[in-house]
Amino acid sequence: MNMIRLDAKAGRVELERAEVLVLTHCEGDGLAKMDAAPFDKLLGGALRDLIQSKEFEGKANEVLLYHTQGKVPAKRLVLVGLGKKKDVTLDSLRQALGHAVKRIRQAKVETFVMALPTVIPKSCTLVEVVQVIVEGAILGNYQFTAYRSDKESPNDVNGMTILTPQKSQLRQLTEGIRRGVATSEATVLVRDLCNHPSNIMTPTRIANEAKAVAKEPGVSLKILEQKDMERLGMGALLGVARGSHEPPKFIILEYNGTKKKEERPVVLVGKTITFDTGGISLKPAENMEHMKADMTGGAEVLASMRAAARLELPLRLISILPVAENMPGGRAMKPGDIVKTLSGKTVEVQNTDAEGRLILSDALTYAQRYQPSALIDIATLTGACVVALGQFAIGMFGTDAKLKEAVRKAGLTAGERVWEMPLWNEYFEQLKSDVADMRNIGGRGGGMITAALFLSKFVGIYPWVHLDIASTDWSERERAYIPKGPTGIGTRLLIQYLIDRSL
Ligand code: BES
Ligand code: ZN
Ligand code: ZN
């Protein structure tokens, strides 16, 4: 996919020469309050007619393209609705831009000018507004065409200029663009990594992707191979990888953006199963292809690392990816097998499809060596998460109220909301095993909770949050700025958390 070139400029909308000029409008506002009002006279009252006839009302996600036929310097106007003014949020703007960019693409236009909306959502800064405009445009423009022979489609939007009437705002615009580009490019990376099929995106390929990220200034990389994992005693990760011919990888990226040596890092851990067949506890065939995206968590912590480095955030960050393919090979783990985790705890594997918590248990134990100030894992962990939360909330668990609150707030800002679930120890009796320290499934009921509780036994004393993204990692339909298939949801939440922490 072509990335969109972005810039900011100061000027008056009615003088702007553009292929397309995008203007937002709130539902119920009359012509006078319209961002496009300066055009109405020049266009002979056309906008007034559009509003009065209710052909365009400004409803959320309504889009209208209008040819100006030389009456103003801009060739076309695209009016996009934000809904009622009192309900406008940052996400309304993202969605508006997602719809606008699709309409522009349909019109086979490659560049456009976005007039900064005069309506700014409550208690938001200009930088945030610009950031979400950029996110909506880049993410709404996303297409995965790597394997299509007809990919040279000429209609891909490749340039956006954000226009403000005030020169004094240009610096904030530039900062908003910088942040929006970092968060969106990270999401695009995640979508790409998850769209590539598992025959391409193998654990070895993931390691190569990590090497590419490690080229960013300030980032270093360590990859543990199978023999290293054996030496350390990562029995859970090795157990999962046994059924596959693909060798597992354990990837650690480190970014240092602060001079303070003693600063304790944020550690991100992402489940990276390049394909989850379920192993010997084989999954049903229907929709199994979605399991190529069972590496979303890992892709997200990798992309967050790249974004932190590109934004030069003043913090220490570690990203850890335990990577394996879950296959039912001749040497695969079998139900009832017992593995010894890196922590020393033994686990009876009653279901080989509950592999995410196994690889994460070793990764979380490993993470403790960095004495994290915050430890966040993100994983497509349970089908139970999908059942409980549907498509619009990430399941959150955690041991630290402050960290949970910071993650909740970042999710709200990013439009990738979390919903907290209980981490009560009562549920732990469901994880008792007759033959080992614990078992890897919790039986009927509370499947998302027992999975999180399993993980909690491997995080030590560190402030920890677990995010179950099985609900949101894959979309059944295309939305304003979310494509069908892998969504990358969670990426911008993580980066927003890192940005908030740095400010
Ligand atoms: N990767 C799946 C979870 C998943 C399901 C992600 C649907 C995205 C969409 C995970 O490894 C899994 O298979 N979990 C099992 C656990 C069960 C055996 C306790 C599940 O949820 O069915
Ligand atoms: Zn599984
Ligand atoms: Zn899985």
Describe the protein in words.
This protein has helices at about 35-40, 45-50, 90-105, 125-140, 170-195, 205-215, 225-230, 235-240, 295-310, 355-365, 385-390, 400-415, 445-455, 490-500, and strands spanning about 5-10, 20-25, 65, 75-85, 110-115, 160-165, 220-225, 250-255, 265-270, 270-275, 315-325, 335-340, 345-350, 375-380, 395-400, 420, 440, 465-470, 475, 485. With about 500 residues, the chain is α/β, with parallel strands linked by helices. The strands form four sheets. Strands 7, 8, 9, 10, 11, 14, 15, 16 and 18 form a nine-stranded mixed β-sheet that branches. Strand 10 (about 270-275), helix 9 and strand 11 (about 315-325) form a beta-alpha-beta unit. Helix 4 (about 125-140) packs parallel to helix 5. It starts with a strand and ends with a helix. Bound molecules: ligand BES and zinc ion (2 copies). Ligand BES binds near residues 354, 356, 381, 382 and 441. Ligand BES binds near residues 276, 294, 354 and 380.
